[in-house]
Specification:
Layout: H1 2-14, E1 24-29, E2 35-36, E3 44-45, E4 76-81, E5 86-92, E6 101-107, E7 113-118, E8 124-126, E9 131-139, E10 147-153, E11 159-165, E12 173-180, E13 185-195, E14 198-209, H2 222-230, E15 235-238, H3 242-245, E16 268-269, E17 285-286, H4 292-301, E18 305-310, H5 330-344, H6 350-357, E19 368-371, H7 377-394, E20 399-402, H8 411-419, E21 427-434, H9 436-441, E22 455-463, H10 477-492, E23 506-508, E24 519-521, E25 526-528, H11 530-540, E26 545-547, E27 549-551, E28 554-555, E29 557-559, E30 562-569, E31 574-581, E32 587-594, E33 603-609, E34 628-632, E35 638-643, E36 647-654
Parallel strand pairs: 1-32, 3-15, 15-18, 18-19, 19-20, 20-21, 21-22, 23-24
Antiparallel strand pairs: 1-27, 2-26, 4-7, 5-6, 6-14, 7-13, 8-13, 9-12, 9-14, 10-11, 10-13, 16-17, 24-25, 26-30, 27-28, 29-30, 30-31, 31-36, 32-35, 33-34, 33-36
Helix pairs in contact: 5-6, 10-11
This protein binds alpha-L-arabinofuranose.
Length: about 650
Amino acid sequence: MRILQLLIVFFVLSLSEPNAIAQKKLSIQLNKPQAEIKPTMWGVFFEDINFAADGGLYAELIKNRSFEFYKPTMGWEKLKMNGGSGEIFILSRSEKPDNPRFARLTSHVEEGMFGLSNEGFRGLPVRENMEYRFSLFARNLGESPVKLIIQLLDSEGNIVGKASLENFTSDWKIHKTYLKSSKTDAKGKINILIQGKGTLDVDMVSLFPKDTWKGRENGMRSDIVQMIADMKPGFVRFPGGCIVEGHELENRYQWKRSVGKIEDRKLIVNRWNTEFKHRSTPDYFQSFGLGFYEYFLLSEDLNAEPLPIVNCGMACQYNTGELVPVDELDPYIQDALDLIEFANGPETSKWGKLRSEMGHPKPFNLKYIGIGNEQWGVQYVERYNIFAKVLREKYPEIQLVSGSGPKPNDERFEYLWTQLPTMDVDVVDEHFYMKPEWFLNNADRYDKFNRTDMVIFPGEYAAHGPDDEYPSSKNSWLSALSEAAFMTGFERNADIVHMCSYAPLLAHVEAWQWRPDLIWFDNLNVFGTPNYYVQKLYSTYAGTHVVPALIDGKPAIGQDSIYASTTIDRKNRKAFIKLVNASSEKTSITIQLKGASPTESTAKVIVMQSLNLMDYNSIEEPTKIVPVESQISGIGKKFNYDLKPQSFQVIVVNLK
Ligand code: AHR
């Protein structure tokens, strides 16, 4: 494996000319803005893959809280303590078709305790001094009152937090209490135990840390959201990905199931549960606790445009490829129309009212909607056109996003591009999961791209290079560096590239199905990959306009392994010079600034570099490859700069 990796690295490096030591001149025309960098340029692609939602971003700590997994007691264990004994039954009620099951706990003896224990998602994490909000729906149909003991445990079984609940009635009611943990442990548990004799029916057993993002009760993990917020994304695409399509239509993402009361959101299996045999995840379901309302709220929190993708009547073409007949698309189209109403409609409209009741009377100001995810073929074109006609008529102000197949330039892509000009499309979503060398060799993709009235959205991309057994190893410096080179092309061609997003966004180190991913986490930690930091440098030094940055009169696309693009921030009078040196040699360049002068003789530079292209960040070494900031001197209208081997940097020059 190691030899193969080295060969690949050697091959990638040999793409760059080895003797490239001669001084190159990068000429930057600061007063000739070529195109605006759209505020939407750098976004994020969220999909519930790799435990991204349940077990990840969604801060719920109890797995299978409503007993609706295929195996209703998955994640739960019967527990008796101090001489207790009893029985657990799973019952199913018809009056709650979207959440029929609940557990009946019957404790038989006065001594001891009896109940259930939950293992959490890959363990139930507890943090020292953190407060937790416990809640459950419960009723007591028995004759005697019941006291419920709630215990937080560490991985050794020690009690690290406790609380109790009483006063249950014969009606289903929500009961809440708080617990504090005295210890930090990633692999704790929670017990819920009846003390003494009695029977209790329980459902929606829930535990959230109090420090969720913005302190919301049905909230998200604040550490993970913070990582996303730090990128200052221009949009949030949700809910995926293939999850939109479903393995079969029955399991497609239906946004209406993800809104309204949490206890009425119908759980379904997550399609990534069984997708890859080698990464099967039998406990992967979608509770929809994190649903469309929460995604809209998140987008708003991040000051990012929401970009929902809807199913267009096609299941995943890599799986069943199940199709809705074209004359039966109405319910699917209605879902899209209702979604726009949910986001933007007045409080008096049916779906606007629901949004308002959920806590957001004001519209979310939705501007984009994606029709289908990674679809292809005649079947897609037919369905897209039917959707587009209706949506355009009713909501002409909404931008319509189409797919272009799963790969750049294969026959599916080529076919769609023969059709796209005849379709009513505003934004074309492109997907690239290619080798690092592809990214280096195709950094001029958009320089050569046909200009039409459609804009381009590389909506899923990631360099897939060599890896080892460690989960985040595929997020090597090699992959990030090649993406950095490719992304100079997004900036250079900002006239047509208006949005882009790396994919997927999130992965749990113990529960992933797909890699590489931008941000990795476990139950207590989160870290950015080198790819994350590259992405973040682009998005936080985005600028407002792109200007020409030329080597020998040509865009810098790999001459002597140098890739470059430059943007300016017109309002704040700054230039952001992005430079990639993809070779293993140090390279010295002369940078010539034309059309504006620096205000001072120093500049800030932020550098990412590693001499080992296979380096990656991990839970143990989360900051092995991160941007390092310093000041450089000697800045003038012309200055020399040494590009370290295998480096990506942003030079920030203040302009007069
Ligand atoms: O990002 C992972 C998957 O890759 C997405 O779900 C899908 O759109 C693509 O095939």
